[in-house]
Specification:
This is Nucleotide pyrophosphohydrolase. The structure is a single chain. With 98 residues, the protein is mainly alpha-helical. It has one domain: Helix Hairpins (Orthogonal Bundle). It is 67% helix and 6% strand. The chain has 4 helices and 2 strands. The longest helix is centred in the middle third of the chain and has 21 residues.
């Protein structure tokens, strides 16, 4: 198994699918993959949960690449913000900031 990162994933996607004409298409596709992920979670199908989660990540890597961003850097920066916010838990494993 190859050690993948944003660069290798995006290079593969460009070679396989061609350049992105409109980044919105990546968002739309990610939303479709999220629906497939939801179905896999509802079915508790571990194999499909892993595959569909990966599909979403691949699309997110490719999306941020279109804007010259690094997904891991963006995640780290967002977590720094999140850690300094006050949160209200909703009781279902999610929450919102106050």
């Amino acid at each position: 198994m190859q050690n993948e990162n944003q660069t290798t994933i995006c290079r593969w996607a460009d070679e396989t699918f061609g350049p992105v004409a409109d980044p919105v298409a990546l968002v739309d596709r990610a939303m479709m993959e999220m629906q497939e992920l939801r179905e896999a979670v509802e079915a508790r199908d571990l194999s499909e949960i892993g595959k569909e989660s990966a599909d979403v990540m691949i699309l997110l890597y490719r999306l941020v690449e279109q804007f010259g961003l690094d997904l891991l850097d963006q995640t780290g920066a967002k977590m720094a913000i999140n850690r300094n916010r006050t949160w209200r838990a909703k009781g279902d494993g999610t929450g919102s900031h106050i």
